[in-house]
Amino acid sequence: MKRIDASRDDGNILIMSVVIVALLVATGLGYMKWASDERWDSEYERATIQAYFVAQTGLMERGLVFLRTREPSDLPQGTVILSPGPVMNGREVVGTHFNNNVQKVVGGGDGNVFQRTDDYDVFSTGRVFFRGQKSRELVPVERTATMRARLRSFANYMYLTDIETTQYGEIIWFWTPDTLWGRTHSNDYIGLKYSPTFYGPISTCKREFRYLSPQNIYFAYPPVFNAPPVHFPTTAKTLRASAQHFSNNNGRLMTWIRMRGAAGIDIFQYSIGSTPAESLVAHINPPSWAGIFVDGQVEVEGILAGQLTIGSAENMWLVNNVQYLGSNAMTGHFAEANMTHILGLVSEKNIIIKDNFVNGKENGAAAGADQNRQSIVINAGLVALGESFTFQHQNDDWEAYQGPTPDERGYIWLKGAVTQQRRGYVHRSNHVGTGYGKSYHYDFRFDRRPPPFYLEALDENGHGLFDIISWGEQRPHN
After folding, report:
1. Is residue 11 pLDDT above 90, yes or no?
2. HSE (CB half, 13 Å, CA atoms) of 152?
3. What does residue 332 show for φ and ψ, rounded to 5 degrees?
4. What pTM was estimated for this model as a whole?
5. What's the pLDDT score for residue 232?
6. What dihedral do alpha carbons 423, 429, 435, 440 form, nearest 10°?
7. What is the C-alpha separation between 347 and 390, in angstroms, rounded?
8. Cβ of 437: how many Cβ atoms within 10 Å?
9. Alpha helices in 273-319 (DSSP H)
10. Under a CB-based contact definition with an 8 Å cutoff, are residues 298 and 317 in contact?
11. 23 partner at 20 to 30 Å CA-CA among 42, 84, 161, 257?
């Protein structure tokens, strides 16, 4: 019988026990280190999130507050450094935001006017501390948040109104033929009748809409109620300060502006009440980011090449088509990506479509497709600060002049935007139908860049309103 050496087995068992214990100890130490690393990673991740939110607080408390408390003329043309500040949780300091600054975005400089922007980049760095893994010292963690904001102008709205009723309290309704493709806002109650269509956002400062026989009203976006009001100034301050001025000789002269495409712009003046005469007072080459301001009434027509805003202290009269070189002669439509011409028409009173032969006088719509006899094409951002965008001779009972029955004048083919202090009629039921149908399309280029020296959208304190274009984080360094 083979003899078993128990002492050898005991030795093997002892060795194996030592090995197992060593493995257990190593495993335990590994788990302890892993747990420690996990805790450190968790604390680090928590600190990075805190730092980012501290930086976001800096964007809001310093950057956005700075922008929202400035008049547009006081906004920086370069970089402005803003003060740092702590972020508190009760009495505890969570972190600190610093390197707060606002920078005007500069275009690429290749001559494209739409690289000239009213955009501002805002930066803020947030810093918090957490305990280090070894020496337990306080380790800083920093993250930088960024925001781009754009100064809003009247041109950012397809249709903007302060008051929705006439001077006589009549509601002017949006109704079935009305289709709006851009942002619509009113400081007043918006009246909706039958089935209008809104493909852009719609908002009002009031708590509700007014309805008359509502049917299939279409909203592409949920309506916004109780929105902040947009302030309407009484004068075009920026345009007045930047434009070339023409006097009206104490109300005696009418100024007549005829745009001639690549041939430039002719400016005439004649005595108010007399027959229009081509008495040239100035010729302007195709303008590059320019303004003209008439200290009186003005008549406007023609084809624009360049970038221009025309303003007037009194009524502005549209005496014929006003459109861009290269736009469709019948509809005024154009490919926005290829169009460089841009026009603003700003009146401190009314903008009025003149009742004349080419604009459809005496039921010109009966002429059919002949647009030399009816309708009007408008490529522009329109602003009527003192009253309305409307039309002459509406056949009201009190008017001395009375047109035929009916007195339909065609369509307003608008590719641009409309702002008016008080919403005006462009069609009436008088004489079984008087005025114009509407074909309004927003010029989406305006959402990036308004016409020269256009009016900014302000709050009641005269401070600029801003849209947040983007929000993000710079690549972290730690």
Report:
1. no
2. 20
3. 80, 5
4. 0.82
5. 93
6. 50
7. 12
8. 17
9. none
10. yes
11. 42
Least Cα distance to 381 among 423, 325, 442 occurs for 442
Which two tokens mark 264?
A: 């430039």
The larger pLDDT score, comparing residue 117 to residue 184, is at 184
pLDDT digits (tens, 9 = 90+) for 117-133: 689 999 999 999 987 66
Identify any residues that bridge with 311 across adjacent strands, giving them in sequence order. 293, 346
Go through 127-143 and write b for each residue having 16 or more CB atoms within 10 A of its CB, e for each that does not: bbbbeeeeeeeebebbb
Q: How far apart are CA 442 and CA 73, in angstroms?
A: 27
Cβ 103 vs Cβ 121: under 8 Å? yes
pLDDT band with cut points at 50, 70 and 90 for residue 474: confident
Task: Give the other-Cβ count within 10 Å of 154's Cβ.
Answer: 25
* Total count of residues recorded for the chain: 478
Calculate the alpha carbon distances from 401 to 140, 197, 421 in Å: 80, 35, 26
Retrieve residue 428's tokens: 């009436």
Rounded-to-integer distance, Cα 341 and Cα 338, Å: 9
Which two structure tokens, joined as six digits, stand for 131? 């305990």
Residues with Cβ within 8 Å of residue 387, at least 6 apart in sequence: 349, 350, 420, 421, 422, 424
